Amino acid sequence: MIEINNLTKIYKLSKKQMQEQKTKKNMKKAADHITLTAKPGQIYGLLGPNGAGKTTTLRCVATLLKPTEGDIKVCGFDTVKEGEKVRDNIAFLTNEIKLDPHFSAKYMFQFFGHLHGMNDAEINERREKLFKYFGITEFQDKKIEELSTGMKQKAAIAVSLVHDPKVVIFDEPTNGLDIVTARSVTDYLRVLRDEGKLVIISTHILSDAEKLCDNIGIIIKGKKVIEGTLQEILTKTNTKDLEDAFFELYKEYNMEEE
Ligand SMILES: Nc1ncnc2c1ncn2[C@@H]1O[C@H](COP(=O)(O)OP(=O)(O)OP(=O)(O)O)[C@@H](O)[C@H]1O
Q1: Fewer CB within 10 Å: C terminus or N terminus of the chain?
Q2: What would the pLDDT profile of 10-65 be if each residue is shown by its tens digit?
Q3: Hey, what domains does the chain have and what are their CATH numbers?
Q4: Atom of ligand 1 nearest to the CA of 59
Q5: CA torsion 77→79→82→85, rounded to 10°?
Q6: CA dist 227 to 128, 148, 257, Å?
Q7: How far is the CA of 138 from the centre of ligand 1 (A)?
Q8: Which of 6, 49, 38, 70 is nearest to 169 (CA)?
Q9: pLDDT at 257 over 70
């Protein structure tokens, strides 16, 4: 279970960042009083345009950032006061995760398994299952640098899941992946959901949210502006598809003063 309670995250901007973001303010409120609950056996999608605050929110959930205000509980543990316990229960994935190119996927899997306190028998069982699913078994002894981009990505995902976490946090799961790799990743998120795990993703791809997510929270300018199943969102916005709903909300909330 993830319980985000009134999360606000404010970044202090450097002069360079102020220039880049074309603002005179030296603070940026990236998450603005976000409250949400995501439950096991569910894929929860944070949907929003670039810069909406999705990554910031997920990084706070994953204990990588400290909220400015509010608190977050993951499996009942506070992300600030009990960070280690939170980290035991999660995998945080992005498409930027890279494995050391000089080692094999098998070696990296074992290395991270040991870091999580697993024994060799447990690691081997997990590896057989995950490598089989992602089609890595045949290439498991090759150096990462010799693998294709898609295979590298799948190996990184398998390694992140070595400890069989209850909660999987995935920032932009299909970004930058070819269509075949993207499909195997989204299919695996469904497998995890069906195993009773909680999967929370961020995306700006409407079709991913539509097809994959049991619950969708739309974030615009750091605020959660609506939440529900696809059908609930369409009913609340009186629209026919998620794209129409999204643009209605975007028109309404993107105009708001900061
Ligand atoms: N470390 C940082 N320092 C200052 N500002 C930041 C920092 N990280 C993010 N921001 C700003 O906070 C806002 C939210 O960024 P965030 O990356 O959370 O959005 P996002 O919804 O994930 O967008 P994207 O899809 O582009 O990754 C943006 O305006 C961004 O420029």
Answers
A1: C
A2: 999 999 989 988 888 999 999 999 999 999 999 999 999 999 999 999 999 999 99
A3: 2-254 (3.40.50.300)
A4: 18
A5: 70
A6: 38, 38, 22
A7: 39
A8: 38
A9: no
Contact residues of ligand 1, CB 6 A cut-off: 11, 13, 17, 21, 28, 30, 48, 50-56, 202, 204
For the residues 87-104, what does the mean pLDDT come to? 90
Give the integer Cα–Cα distance in Å for 238 and 244: 9
What pTM, to 2 d.p., does this model score? 0.93
Cβ neighbours, 10 Å, residue 14: 10
Residue count (the chain): 258
- Closest ligand 1 atom to residue 21 Cα is 31
- For residue 218, count CB atoms less than 10 angstroms from its CB and return exposed for 0-12, middle for 13-18, buried for 19 or more: buried
Of the chain, the percentage scoring pLDDT greater than 70 comes to 99
